Amino acid sequence: MSPALLLLSGPNLNLLGERQPLVYGTDTLDDHVARARAAAEARGLDLEHFQSNHEGALVETVHSARGRCAAIVVNAAALTHYGWSLHDALAAFDGVVIEVHLSNPSAREPWRHTSVLAPVADGTISGLGGLGYELAVEAVARLLDERSTAH
Ligand code: DQA
Q: How does strand 96-101 pair with strand 123-126?
């Protein structure tokens, strides 16, 4: 059975394609998920995706990944900047965690400069648009390889 990778999408990402295209591009969330899924399949990972506009639903999905998924790629959208319950849920997840953003939050409004998830992520990929999803999956695959050879 292939290791499972959970891709988690936060509030308003369901509007990608229509929402601020100059900032986020014209690809839809389905386009990004398809790109991530193709990258995952190429690395023998089984990608599942969950999007919600509700922090609690995202927290519960992280709980459901415990002991089941090898890794989580998360674009928590605005929750990145204040979602402490998502931080705590990810802190209780044992696998690889990669944070991804389409835009570069550090180059935007000051309130976007802090990520409360960064301290519980293995790494963050920002500002590369949809390519970031592919790179996040590649990072997951490499870190999982490293961890399996280290044991
Ligand atoms: C985002 C950046 C966040 O600051 C913002 O709230 C989003 C999307 C990104 O992918 O660039 O909704 O996570």
A: parallel
